[in-house]
Amino acid sequence: MAIYSLWIFDRHSNCIYSREWDNKSKSSLVNVNNAKDTAKLLFGTIFSMKNISQNLSKQNKLKSFSTLRFKCHFKETGSGLKFCLLTDPELEDMQFLLDEIYTSCYVNHVVKNALSPVDFRAGQVIGSEPFTSDIDRLVVTLPSFST
Amino acid sequence: MQIYTLYILNKSGGLVYHNDFQPGLLQLTTNESLVMASTIHSIHAISSKITPANAKTNDLYNNNKSGLRIIETENFQIYVYQTITGVKFIGFANDTNLAEMEVWFKKVYLCYSDYVMKNPFQQLDMPIKNDNFDRIVRQTV
């Protein structure tokens, strides 16, 4: 059981934040792969799945998708922000963690921060260190987090 | 266990069979179903590309080693079952779990082998039009 990474996309489909947890790598993996293929493929997959779920049932929300090797938990806020959490497929529903990340980390460090932009431009990311340390504190203390 | 719809995709992602067992999902036109099937086929392939580098490998015997298996939404779930030849069975269901669906997919695969693959008039990778298969699949639900 493990938690692998967290990705945040804004409503213009830019990846504004990424955090990967890997015990092998020494440097902290924050906003490293935002412009890489992984982020784009992840967004594309989520986008198609959202379309599928809304085509088949009205007022429907995508919750997660999984393969044999990982599971992606998904949450979209009313303002079009998308949160994706990649974990081990064995893990149960992690919506509570995404809710917590949004309400206690994102709202506190980005929405209430006067210096942070309301709308992110292409290539702009959340660079705030307290934001990362708050997320780490939430995620690393979970019993299911053991890399 | 409620199963709404079954799709069968050939190895190149074309929709060869479509059966609605019970209402519950919005009705799609034939064209929309074809689009849906090929979208699932492509996200199945893409989802293996986004596997985290440090993800554990699973030794479980399964032909769907790295591709998409489940999409969970609030109102229903989509399950993907892949055979060794690359044929995909896609089930739209609710109130069920993966283990239960795997059992059902195996039953459908058996019907497929008996009624479709053993039919000398069936052309490979072409749409399945076979009343006996329709009937026998409906019995498994």
TrEMBL record, chain A:
Recorded GO MF terms: guanyl-nucleotide exchange factor activity
SMART domains found in the cross-reference section: Sybindin
Pfam families named among the record's database cross-references: Sybindin
GO BP term (any one): endoplasmic reticulum to Golgi vesicle-mediated transport
Location in or out of the cell: Endoplasmic reticulum; Golgi apparatus, cis-Golgi network
GO cellular component terms, semicolon-separated: endoplasmic reticulum; TRAPPI protein complex; TRAPPII protein complex; TRAPPIII protein complex
Keywords: Endoplasmic reticulum, ER-Golgi transport, Golgi apparatus, Transport
Stretches that traverse the bilayer: none
Leader peptide range in chain numbering: none
SUPFAM superfamilies: SNARE-like
Family indicated by similarity: Belongs to the TRAPP small subunits family. BET5 subfamily.
UniProt subunit comment: Part of the multisubunit transport protein particle (TRAPP) complex.
Protein name, entry field: Trafficking protein particle complex subunit
Natural source organism: Kuraishia capsulata CBS 1993
Organism placement in taxonomy: Eukaryota, Fungi, Dikarya, Ascomycota, Saccharomycotina
TrEMBL record, chain B:
Keywords: Endoplasmic reticulum, ER-Golgi transport, Golgi apparatus, Transport
CDD domains: TRAPPC4_synbindin (cd14856)
A GO CC annotation given for this chain: TRAPPI protein complex
SUPFAM superfamilies tied to this protein: SNARE-like
Any one GO BP annotation for this protein: chromosome organization
Pfam families reported for this sequence: Sybindin
Source superkingdom: Eukaryota
Subcellular location: Endoplasmic reticulum; Golgi apparatus, cis-Golgi network; Golgi apparatus
GO molecular function, one term: guanyl-nucleotide exchange factor activity
InterPro entries assigned: Longin-like_dom_sf, TRAPPC
Family: Belongs to the TRAPP small subunits family. TRAPPC4 subfamily.
PANTHER family, per database record: TRAFFICKING PROTEIN PARTICLE COMPLEX SUBUNIT, TRAFFICKING PROTEIN PARTICLE COMPLEX SUBUNIT 4
Self-association state and partner proteins as the record states: Part of the multisubunit transport protein particle (TRAPP) complex.
Name by which UniProt lists this protein: Trafficking protein particle complex subunit
Organismal lineage: Eukaryota, Fungi, Dikarya, Ascomycota, Saccharomycotina
